[in-house]
Specification:
This protein is of the alpha+beta class. It has 29 helices and 23 strands. A 7-stranded antiparallel beta sheet has the order 20-17-19-18-22-23-21, sandwiched between helices. A 5-stranded antiparallel beta sheet has the order 10-11-15-13-14. Strands 6-7-9-8 form a 4-stranded mixed beta sheet, covered by helices on one side. The two termini are 34 Å apart.
Length: 800
């Protein structure tokens, strides 16, 4: 015990506790657990200062008081033993805690084993999902989801691509994954794709969003049936001579023109577009969808489209994950709009391990690239949040950035060359070079071109050996500014963790709300750990709960490099008051990224609009910019009557550079009662963008411009610089064959009505749909209340 006192800090005590994932019910392991408890309690007892106990107490009474305070933190139902001051031993205290928990939890078996809890919550929509408590047959029950599922259950997809068949028709991501609320109030994530949250019950999630964001879980905003929006898809406008030539040349793998396929290729995932899917309609969608599978087929398609340029136009399609409305069809376009989907161009054509290069087709998604390269022992390392769906060609078109940018670079860092098919022919380069000085680099004009100049078909990229070692970590900071200063110094010192991201206090607390429900002994152990952490962070380190921030990091490379960087980063963090939050917390925080994107669909089911946006800002202005944008959003919301609750907003730092960092924002608000909610949302988002520009921020860091931000595009360059971009478009595509009209580089073709469609939404359509929903559901209120009441009566053991 003396050695332990000397060598361990209070934070290090967590390592003494058994891992709940590997908990054993054997008596030997249980005895070891009690030994750990004794050591922890002994050190805690000696670590508590006199400020925790009244000085007038007898020393033995002080000891008992300290332990009682500790256990009340850990377990709200703990009652100290009624005994003399000298009789409170460590053994009896631990036993009392175990007994207290066992008595409170109805599901514990008489043998003292921990609760066995089964979450078989897959993609069935919880129509008959159950959970079982071991040893308690009387507590078997059905848990019905009360969140409306946005996944159509009866609609048969006509999409030819296998990945696209697995995706939602309204909303983000895979059909088998969504946030749903169960009748006991817990929220869960369906499916099994994301072990960090899938099939787990989240007891604190609902309370957090009701308290912090004002989300009312009793008021549902039902999306229209997918069959209904399909029925609203306008009739296709096919130019028969082009279609006949395409069929004759057979320059595609699939050709589709059904309403579902056309609709899916006519939108991305901006708030405005998803709102239309849920409550409205699209007045203009693509007329035809082609799936080529090679560069040569794309060349043939573009050649035929150029032949009929007065009757046909093209819009390239990658993963469809854009949040800038880049795929939205111009409503004034009278030509036949053809979507060129690259999903069937999903192969890695060759890998040259000696020269560290690979040639990848434009339709490969991030996951496909990773898996195919891993088989060859190499890695690209580009992992944007959307990497399950976004494609190589889309990364080039938007000038993308990924989570692991620090180690592997952004798209402009690892892209050596790309083939691009334009109306004037194919842009290509002779040879692959590590670096070249051939005059201006044409690739710089293609990067970020957003489908306006041509179609990317093949990319040659630099690759690296697959990392031998990977570590995660977390750092807790007293405030956001301290975290920002730490990130800046880490970059200045030349340290390059694969990812190092800082979240603000609101993000930090949101992450805490995603902790899963625990049962029995496992629950008591986690409560014990959380209590120690809270005491250490708030009492001993003096951090305020309403200011704490956290950074998560991922380190990759060889073992020596990873260990060295980990040590140096924690040393730098300590200078700014940062403390080690543990590898498990770092891993959980890092992996949550891919699941968080599903939250917006859940929120919209309860009248809550939300969106993300980003920028890059000089280091000196990062903190000021973040605070100013938050304040501006709240002020703009108040000006439009969004007061109680006010808009919810949070921020994070996701990428670091020498001159500055990427700031990423989330914001949202309750839209029930607003006549035209998307118009209000767009106005607030525009005001936030103006605030960013006022603080020296970029128009976008990696999302791109699209149509959502195109009105600022000319402000980003001098008149001569912007004209150069327009002239490039006029020369390479004089007939506007690639007619997405992104970035405002064809200003004469953008009408006031089109700009209205992009930014606003006719509120009357939304009001009509809501009136229909309310009238259709009001008759079922009594039945739902009876079902809820019956569920509540049979829900006694769910608290544990």
């Amino acid at each position: 015990e003396v050695k332990v006192k000397k060598k361990l800090t209070l934070l290090g005590l967590f390592l003494l506790l058994p891992s709940p994932q590997h908990h054993s019910h054997s008596s030997q392991r249980h005895h070891k657990t009690l030994q750990h408890h004794r050591i922890v309690l002994s050190i805690l007892r000696s670590s508590f200062s006199s400020t925790f106990t009244p000085s007038s107490m007898h020393p033995h009474q002080q000891q008992q008081h300290r332990l009682s305070v500790l256990y009340k933190h850990i377990h709200p139902h703990f009652q100290p033993a009624q005994s003399s001051p000298r009789s409170l031993s460590l053994n009896s205290t631990a036993a009392t805690l175990n007994a207290s928990g066992a008595q409170h939890h109805h599901g514990d078996s008489s043998t003292g084993g921990s609760v066995q809890h089964s979450n078989n919550n897959a993609s069935s929509g919880y129509q008959a999902s159950t959970h079982q408590t071991a040893g308690s047959p009387a507590h078997h029950k059905k848990l019905y989801a009360i969140t409306p599922s946005i996944v159509p259950r009866s609609f048969k997809s006509n999409l030819p691509n296998e990945l696209q068949k697995s995706l939602k028709t309204i909303g983000w991501g895979f059909q088998d994954t969504e946030f749903l609320m169960k009748t006991n109030g817990d929220v869960t994530v369906t499916g099994r794709r994301y072990p960090v949250l899938s099939a787990k019950s989240l007891p604190n999630f609902r309370d957090f969003f009701e308290k912090e964001a004002g989300l009312d879980s009793d008021k549902l905003s039902l999306a229209q049936a997918y069959e209904d929006i399909i029925a609203k898809v306008p009739k296709e406008n096919i130019y028969e001579p082009f279609l006949n030539d395409i069929k004759r040349e057979s320059c595609y793998k699939y050709l589709v023109q059904d309403a579902e396929s056309r609709l899916m290729h006519s939108h991305g995932h901006s708030l405005q577009e998803i709102f239309r899917l849920r409550y409205g309609k699209f007045n203009r969608v693509v007329d035809l969808v082609l799936y080529p599978e090679s560069h040569e087929q794309v060349e043939q398609i573009v050649k035929l489209a150029t032949k009929y340029k007065d009757h046909v136009c093209l819009i390239p399609y990658g993963g469809g994950t854009t949040v800038t409305q880049a795929l939205l069809c111009p409503e004034g376009e009278t030509r036949c709009i053809v979507s060129i989907d690259t999903h069937e161009m999903n192969r890695i054509l060759w890998v040259d391990k000696q020269n560290n290069t690979a040639c990848i087709q434009a339709g490969c998604t991030g996951v496909q690239i990773h898996d195919q390269l891993k088989e060859r022992g190499v890695v690209l390392g580009h992992e944007p949040d959307s990497w399950e769906f976004s494609t190589m060609g889309g990364w080039v078109a938007t000038r993308a950035s990924g989570m692991k940018k620090n180690r592997y670079g952004n798209i402009e860092d690892f892209l050596l060359h790309a083939k691009v098919v334009t109306p004037q022919g194919t842009i290509d380069c002779k040879g692959v070079h590590a670096r070249k000085s051939h005059g201006p680099d044409v690739m710089e004009m293609i990067l970020g071109s957003e489908g306006c100049f041509g179609i990317v078909t093949e990319c040659i990229v630099s690759i690296q050996g697959y990392p031998r070692s990977k570590k995660y970590g977390a750092i807790v900071f007293p405030n956001f500014e301290s975290g920002v200063n730490c990130l800046r110094e880490v970059y200045e010192k030349g340290l390059r963790p694969a990812a190092l991201r800082l979240v603000d206090n609101m993000n930090f607390r949101m992450g805490s709300s995603l902790k899963e429900r625990r049962f029995g002994f496992d629950k008591r152990m986690h409560a014990f750990e959380d209590a120690i952490k809270k005491i250490y962070v708030t009492k001993m380190k003096g951090m305020r709960e309403d200011q704490i921030c956290a950074a998560t990091m991922c380190l990759e490379g060889d073992t020596h490099e990873v260990n060295h960087q980990e040590k140096r980063i924690y040393q730098i963090a300590a200078k700014y008051g940062g403390i080690n939050g543990g590898s498990e917390a770092g891993k959980q925080g890092f992996l949550l990224t891919h699941v968080i994107a599903y939250l917006r669909d859940y929120a919209m089911s309860y009248y809550f609009l939300a969106e993300s946006f980003e920028t890059s800002v000089p280091w000196a202005k990062v903190v000021g910019c973040v605070e100013a944008v938050k304040q501006r959003i709240r002020e703009e919301g108040k000006r439009r009557g969004i007061i109680d609750p006010q808009p919810w907003v949070c921020a994070r730092i996701s990428q670091s550079y020498g001159p500055g960092a990427c700031c990423y924002f989330y914001f949202g608000f309750v839209f029930k009662g607003l006549k035209d909610p998307v118009k209000v949302f767009s106005e607030i988002e525009d005001a936030a963008r103006d605030e960013i520009l006022n603080h020296g921020g970029a128009l976008s860091h990696h999302h791109g411009v699209g149509k959502l931000r195109r009105r600022w595009m000319s402000e980003m360059w001098s008149e001569t610089g912007f004209k150069l971009i327009q002239d490039f478009k006029d020369n390479i595509d004089p007939d506007n064959l690639f007619a997405a009209n992104n970035m405002n580089i064809k200003p004469a073709q953008i009408t006031d009505q089109e700009e209205f469609v992009v930014r606003d939404y006719a509120g009357q359509q939304f009001d009509d749909i809501q009136d229909e929903d309310e009238s259709s559901t009001s008759s079922d209120d009594e039945e739902e209340e009876e079902a809820q009441s019956a569920s509540d009566e049979d829900d006694d053991s769910d608290d544990e």
